[in-house]
Amino acid sequence: MFDAVIDDNMFIISIGGAGIPIFLGRFIFTYIICMIIFAVTRNIKQETFSKFFFRQKARTKEEISPNQ
């Protein structure tokens, strides 16, 4: 995952962008998004959180088509 930070920023820098503002801007943007997600999800019940953010158990072939 971290390689995307390096690759993307190096690409922008290679076409003329300033390095420090790019790294700093992406860090601040990521921090703000993480804080928003934290604020929205911190008061959700565990059952509701699991329902919306995790997959349910995968069904077997027999459960999908029991007659075949």
Can you characterise this structure?
The protein is an all-alpha fold and 68 residues long. 71% of the residues lie in helices and 0% in strands. It is built from four helices and no strands. The relative contact order is 0.06.
Q: What is the strand and helix layout of this fold?
A:
Elements: H1 2-14, H2 19-41, H3 46-53, H4 61-64
- Give the proportion of residues in helices: over 70%
Rounded mean pLDDT is 82
General shape? elongated
Number of helices: 4
- Total DSSP E strands: 0
Report the oligomer. single chain
Structural class: mainly alpha
Enumerate the spans where pLDDT stays under 50 for 5 or more consecutive residues: none
Question: Could you tell me the radius of gyration in angstroms?
Answer: 21 Å
Tell me the fraction of residues in β-strands, as a range: under 5%
What summary fits the major beta sheet? none
N-C termini distance: 43 Å
- Order of helix and strand elements from N to C terminus: HHHH
Defining key terms:
68 residues; 0% strand
Structure at a glance:
With 68 residues, the protein is mainly α.
